[in-house]
Amino acid sequence: RGPAGRGMAEAAFERRVLRRAAEHHYLRVRLELADGGARPNAAQFKQLVVTALRELHGEVGAALPVDVLTYEEKTLSAILRVISSGLVKLWSALTLLGFYQNRRCAFRVLQTSPFLLALSGNSRELVLD
Listed GO cellular component terms (predicted)? Predict the structure, then answer.
């Protein structure tokens, strides 16, 4: 018998922890517009993200490296990549943005992850035959 009267048949568990934080974070976002006016193209969408950062965090925020990896103009959905240290700045700037071309708007952060693959599928949208 081992310590504290336990047998040797007890399973051993191993915990694995990432040794360093992820370099980037990925966000799946959707822009919601108040009315059916013009939709931003990819360049305008990126500019809107930069504008949101500038309005909340100034020029330092606007300089935060953010990449638009995918953008669907039809659904106004995108996947953004930001350095992990800038995640909170980006998320807060997007959340507080309220206007696009003098129209009410809102960014919705649908998913976030340090792993791009985690955003590739959403079990809530899964359709079973």
Answer: multimeric ribonuclease P complex; nucleolus
Q: Is residue 46 part of a domain?
A: yes
Query: Tokens representing 44?
Result: 């305008």
Tokens of 17: 């922890």
| Amino acid identity for residue 47 in this structure | Q
Give the residue numbers spanning the domain of 85: 24-120
Give the per-residue pLDDT at 118.
Answer: 86
Query: Does some domain include residue 39?
Result: yes
Residue 60, amino acid: V
Question: Are 119 and 109 in contact, with CB atoms under 8 Å apart?
Answer: no
Residues (pLDDT < 50) of the chain are none
The CATH number of residue 30's host domain is 3.30.70.3250
Enter the DSSP assignment of 39.
P
Tokens describing residue 47: 């500019």
